[in-house]
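Slide 14.
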Amino acid sequence: KDCKILKILMIRNKYNNPSGNAMVWVLSKEDMENALRHNMEHLGDRYVKVRVAREETFRSTSSDPDAFTVKLSGLPWTATEQEICEFLFGCEVLSGPAGVNIEMNEEGKPSGSALVKLETKAD
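Slide 15: predicted structure.
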């Protein structure tokens, strides 16, 4: 394989079924670039979108543009920043719950997605 994967998080819906979303942590920038080359390739009969979690998607005002950020999708709409930190047990979330940015929909309600700033790429 052309990517050194550190961790995979399969996102499940509220019924504990696969949501179709996953987060993948890779070892290096080169591995990330290799992973991105697989964007829109097929896995079985479905195509897969591969993208880097980008904070500007969430209109954040982060003062640290180099912070390592991951995107979680398929979260329960009721999930809090603290619950997301607890869900990522074993990862160091930068500034604790303040490092979690829950995306809101056009009605101002949680969308089920969040960006989480981590201390290091290994987290």
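Speaker note: Residues 29-36 form the longest helix (8 residues).
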